[in-house]
# Entry
Amino acid sequence: MEFEALKKSGITNLLSAFGRSIWLPQGIFYWTGRAKKEATIDATIGSAQGPENEIIAGAPDKAVTFYIPSVQRHFAGLKSEETVPYAPMLGLPDLRKAWREWILRKVGDLRPRVEPCLTLPAVTPGVTGGIFMAAKMFVDKDEVVVSPDRLWENYSNIVERHIGARIETFPFFDGGRFNLKGMQRKLLDTLAQQPKALLMLNFPNNPVGFNPPQEMVQPIVQALIDVVEQAGKPIVVLCDDAYEGYVYDPAALQRSMFGDLCDAHRRILPIKLDGISKEFLFYGGRLGCLTFGLPSGLDVDRKALQEELDNKLGGIVRSTVSNCTRPVQSAILKALGQLDQVLAERQRTVDVLGRRANLLKAEFAKVSLPQLRPLPFNAGFFCFCDVEGVPANKLAEHLIEKYKIGVVPSEGGKINGIRIAFCSVPEKDIPTLVNGIVSAIKDLAAES
# Structure
């Protein structure tokens, strides 16, 4: 966007440097807006959707955003004292304790190792807000943040436009496996130029939909240990766990890598960012949590360290959003008290998305088209297809105009491809989706 109206009005001259630099890229929201108006198959939306009777027995066959009934009941039954008063800056104390227990439940047999490291989670305005708070606390202007090259586009808005740092990437895959050597090289190069590095790890990944196999977890952790040992400098690992729990391959890691990173090395500080948007299918609730995994070998009073971290985080919250919404915290606290029921209800959505992912793989397996290369996917809400010989934006435009199929294109550097949100495409439409993509590529290839 050129912001011609702002320039003509003279308001541009009133803007701060930040006000002049910030902008919303023509990305996911642009294509989602187009798809809502023009598409009959919408594979742009990053929320689980489909016929209500897929998740609720006896419900109508109408399209809804999937939800967890017991969470909705708790929200509807709140009393005034659970909704009206301000919430504490870092969240309701009982919710913070309950979320800590939720994390410990998720790490499973790693609990004895993780529990001594785990701080009390701080409530954030969604996982996005948690990413912003962590980046604001740990990244300086002009520093480098390291990430795989398949990343959520909003990272750039947060890290580069808000903070003034820059993201440098390494190729996500090396021969169909997570690129350990590329990650190590990029971190070592970064640490040669600055006193610490911040690494962003998003598993299951958006936009790829990949979670590493269980056998890869320890090599990833060891690779990071080797980096800090060789460089003699620390790294902060931001675990963006927004899609934790949505894994459709029994050989893949079934939980966050955060637990494996806890106490891995005194120079590795993992930070867990998770929340209710996907884990509790409550997108509009805008509630996340930020939790530190403090190494056990730190020679410091742990209670004092928790208080001082809380003070820092509280300063960010107070000066930005003041606090997070109390009604949502109250409802989620009640849901956490009935976790077995909540997870049983959520499993219906996990099962639906797993069937869609497996059907999508099967449909792609039938395709023999050199220009289309689906990347490995086994988790999350998305898959990503590299496209050769046809610009991704042109493909997305042709798909929506001729075939009424909405996808999100990605172009930049060595990446040219489309993100497919199978989370919002019913099973019956998946063969049509794949056939449309194949036909659209063939159309455009014939033109060139």
